[in-house]
Structure formats: C-alpha cells, structure tokens
Amino acid sequence: MSYSTIISNTSFLSLASKFTTRGSRLQCTVSMARSAVDETSDSGAFQRTASTFRNFVSKDSNSQFPAESGRYHLYISYACPWASRCLSYLKIKGLDDAISFSSVKPIWGRTKETDEHMGWVFPGSDTEVPGADPDHLNGAKSVRELYEIASPNYTGKYTVPVLWDKKLKTVVNNESAEIIRMFNTEFNHIAGNPDLDLYPSHLQAKIDETNEWIYNGINNGVYRCGFAKKQGPYEEAVEQVYEALDRCEEILGKHRYICGNTLTETDIRLFVTLIRFDEVSSYFQSKKKKYTICERISNVETLIQVYAVHFKCNKKLIREYPNLFNYTKDIFQIPGMSSTVNMNHIKQHYYGSHPSINPFGIIPHGPNIDYTSPHDRHRFSK
Ligand SMILES: N[C@@H](CCC(=O)N[C@@H](CS)C(=O)NCC(=O)O)C(=O)O
C-alpha cells in the first residue's frame, strides 16, 4: 500500500495512530480496529455506522432516565463537531447548572497498555491541558474505559459525545442528534432558558428536510470527502459539499437563519461545521510552505501533497461566502455559543496529532478569524 493510499484512507482524528517516524522513514503502524477510518463500503465511500447507546432521558419522573438536576454528565471533545453541538445546546438552553460537562484532551493517546488502540484520553490533572479535565466521576483514563464500564462486552467505536448517567453509571446515549433533542425538550423544568425551542412543531417538517441535505452535503459531506478511498466517491462528495454550501449561501440571502427568521436546530448543526471549515482548509494550504524539513525525508513529499488536499474541501473558504460568513459570526455571537468553540483544542488536535507531518508540533497563529466582529444579519427582520 502506498503512503498516498494510506493517507487518503485516513481521518484527521486518527492519523496519529497510523504513523510513526522512525529515523528517516515513515512506517505504517496500522493499529486502529474500531474507528471511523474503518467505516468504508466496498465502493470506497465513507459510511458512518450508527451509534450504539440510544436511551432517552425523559421529563417523566417515572422513566428509567428521568431528567433530574445533577444526574447527567456530558463528555465532549472541543475538537469534535458532533460533541460541540451538544455543548451548544447545553449552553444556550441554560443547562449549565443541571448537567455537568467535561472535555477530553485534544490529542488522541493510547487507551490501554495491552493493545495499540488510540483514542480520546483524559488529562492526568486539572492543569495539564487548559480546557480538558481529568475524569473526576469515574477515574477513567480514556473514553474507552467509560464504554467498558457501561458495557464490558462493547465492541463499537469509543466516540464522543457521551451522555453519562452518574446514578446508574452508564452511557445513556452517544448519538448527538438525539442528545440535542433531549436537551431541547426534556430538561425545561430545570433549564435557564426553557422557552427557547429549537425544534418547534410548526417548523419540524422544514427542519427535518433541511437537516437531511445539510447532513449529507455538509456535516457528513466533509467527512465523505476526507475518508473516501476512491476517486469516484470523493468526486461525488465534494460536488455535494459545494452544492450544499452554495444552496445555503442563496437561502441566507433571503432570511437570517437557514429555516427562516427563527433560530432552529439546523442552525446549530450547520454552525459546528462552518466554524471549523476555514481553519482546516488553511491548515492544508499552509502545508506546502512549512515542511521543507520533511521534504528531505523519503516519501514525505508524496505524503504532504496528498495531505494538503486531504479533506479536499478547499475549493472555496467560508469567509469567501458573504452570507455564510456573516451568518457564522451571528451564531457565534449568540450568548453562550462562543464558549463552545475552543479553537486551541481544534487546532491542537489537527496540528498536534500528526507528529510525522508536523515534527515540532508547532501551532501556527493564523488565520485568527474574528467571529466577534460586526455582522450584517440584523438586516433581516425577526
Ligand atoms: N454519531 C455520532 C458521531 C460522533 C463521532 O464520530 N465522534 C468522533 C469525533 S468527531 C469520535 O469520537 N471518533 C472516535 C473514533 O472514531 O474512534 C454523533 O453524532 O454523536
């Protein structure tokens, strides 16, 4: 297998687990058994597998998982868009006092001494990585351990987000699309912002329909570009990404939010991908200039070139779309939202997880987009 083949098969989130630098040669140390990287169909297209824990917290106090203040904990990674959408809900619904949360370290580590699996790990102390917390609840060293506490025979992926029940010591749900719906409706009696309904009944059909093409074209679309193992599925995915972005740009020229002039779930879903988009693209763009030292290492030139277009979504940046860019700032400026965006974690993840490509782990300063600067979205009446 050539390096270029390997790289094009590998996700950002798992690249560190695949390569080590030994002397001047890169060696493949394929070790992940349970990761998004393995989720590819025979045709070479990325296919995300379904989440496993699908229980629901309910406002009904007699249910198995009743919505009680202090009972649940949300494990996230600030680097992960799916986890970030759950954190966004926690913040804008005012659930900080009712539901605790913590973030893992941005860079994957070994999850066990007895095998090679790499995944999300907790820091050893409160000060090791700003923004990341040790697991004070279970004393776990990794997210994998949480899944194993919940289900000793678990064989799926060890993903974030995880909604954890402190009382029953188990994973309630690990599917962000469902966690956000629970946060929207089930905790209102203990929420600081109970009247905010991001999935109102009169807009549900519109939201469901819009979610579908935004998920396929944008949220999962960027992964389908990055994880494609063959040219055909990539071409199809990248075309869909830009078709969907163009469609958003047009819609956002007509009203403030994506489903009209009301903020909905779809806006939060879209935002978490948009806010990461330009950082990732500019990362690739900076590659060619930065890695002269690597170019001396055999085969690395191929690696860099493939990597530079790894996500392959650099046809146009979000800041080149006036409506999408202003819209991203608008959502970022909703009270609570900016605290869900930890650009250091996002950047540390991307720059720090690839020691063979970025041997000194230096994190560049740019592009430093100021999402707090004025936007023009107030031009739409509410
Ligand atoms: N369906 C899940 C997907 C979550 C997901 O893919 N999380 C990634 C991080 S962005 C993860 O934890 N990956 C770990 C792995 O693939 O092993 C959701 O939306 O909640």
Automatic annotation (TrEMBL):
Residues 200-350 form the GST C-terminal domain. Glutathione binds at W120, K157, Y158, T159, V160, E175, S176. The record marks Y307, Y350 as: Lowers pKa of active site Cys. GO terms for biological process: cellular response to hypoxia. GO terms for cellular component: chloroplast; cytoplasm; cytosol. Gene3D superfamilies: 1.20.1050.10, Glutaredoxin. The active site is at C80 (nucleophile), Y223 (proton donor/acceptor). This is Glutathione S-transferase family protein.
